[in-house]
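ZP: hey, is the S-adenosyl-L-homocysteine complex queued? I don't see it on the tracker
AM: it wasn't, my bad. submitting now with these inputs:
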Amino acid sequence: MNHRLTVVGLGPGQHDWCTPEVTALFDQATDLVGYAPYLARVPAGCTARRHASDNRVEAERAEHALDLAAGGGNVVVVSSGDPGVFAMASAVLEQLDEHPERWCDVHVSVCPGITAAQALASRVGAPLGHDFCVISLSDVLKPWSVIERRLDAAAGADFVIALYNPRSRHRPHQFTDAIAVVCRHRDASTPVVVGRNVGRDEEAVTITDLERLDHTTIDMSTIVIIGSSTTRVLDRPTSCQVYTPRSYAEPRLLPSVAQCREAGASPARYSPL
Ligand code: SAH
């Protein structure tokens, strides 16, 4: 009996972005659990039973997977990208936390994958080369007020920001609202990188800026990286790339938290000097 559950990341798309560690697990699995389109990306040679579920039922999917493992299975739960970034690893651990007496004999572990932000960054150079953060714009699991506050703080602190779940059909205005929050702190010329279906057949990558960003091109298959005040576009005869330097030039230094307090301002509201 295995009683084992592993949450794995398939990477964002192409097969060679899935780690050998994850690929090897498929050979030993008895059951695969996941959102149907992600299960479809597991190689056909994997003979484990496939349990496909809808996208919005993370808690139920986690519970089902844990039950299968408790029954003696060697269960693999698949996520796209990295399983720890807005994905199934938290959902599984949340179930364990909520039911401390249940699934006591199930061993749970996590295998990493390339997350969408890293994949897009690599396509254009190194926009994540200095401090960055990732924010999901989905308000299904957290209120919009929290998202707005985090955007404001991250933009004010001059992080490069990668936006996941940026714009759905049900809340198209929220992406525009999010960009308006960022624009409180960033110049209109700040580089923005948009990637749709990165690593998949229909991949499309665009380098633009906050002013020219076409909001209608953004959807849930898209990830958006907004540069910091130091992010630069490197236009060369052979390529156009984006990078964020690893050093902070003196004139752009942010005031310290102590300086902000002295000036009676919230550090998150300060832009670079
Ligand atoms: N665990 C995933 C993220 C899941 S949240 C990861 O680590 O990548 C889903 C969001 O991820 C999408 O709405 C989109 O913003 C982003 N995403 C995932 N795969 C992508 C891809 N191949 N191209 C562009 N964006 C992607």
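AM: back. The first strand starts at residue 4 and ends at 9.
ZP: great, adding it to the tracker
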